[in-house]
């Protein structure tokens, strides 16, 4: 995951909008490409002992299920904003 090239390739190949995309990881290094490309980043606490202050993330959750909940909420909020425009 730390290689932004994989993300850049997906963005090109599938016309993905990074601003409407998510990166979920359990280490700070997992989130770096997402941060560089403007994606929403979600750090999952899974025992890697990543101090909150050391990781740059948009959301901090306890497990993958909570990450899914964050993504659902973000998508629903985005859909609501779009329907109001």
Q: Helices and strands in order, then pairings?
A:
Elements: H1 4-13, E1 22-25, H2 28-37, E2 40-44, E3 59-61, H3 64-84
Parallel strand pairs: 1-2, 2-3
As laid out across the biggest beta sheet, the strand order is 1-2-3
**CATH class value:** Alpha Beta
In total, the number of domains comes to 1
H/E series: HEHEEH
User: How would you name the CATH homologous superfamily?
Assistant: HAD superfamily/HAD-like
Distance between the termini: 35 Å
Enter the CATH topology name.
Rossmann fold
Let me know the number of strands: 3
CATH architecture type = 3-Layer(aba) Sandwich
Largest pleated sheet: 3 strands, parallel
The residue fraction in helices comes out at 40-55%
Helix-strand category: alpha/beta
C-alpha-based Rg, rounded: 13 Å
The low-pLDDT segments are none
Strand content: 5-15%
Provide the residue-averaged pLDDT: 88
Number of contiguous helices: 3
């Amino acid at each position: 995951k730390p290689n932004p090239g994989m993300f850049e390739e997906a963005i090109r190949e599938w016309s993905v909008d990074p601003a409407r995309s998510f990166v979920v990881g359990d280490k700070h290094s997992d989130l770096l490409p997402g941060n560089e490309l403007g994606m929403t980043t979600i750090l999952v606490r899974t025992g890697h002992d990543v101090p909150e202050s050391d990781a740059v993330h948009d959301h901090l959750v306890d497990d993958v299920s909570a990450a899914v909940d964050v993504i659902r909420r973000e998508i629903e909020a985005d859909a609501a904003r779009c329907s109001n425009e």
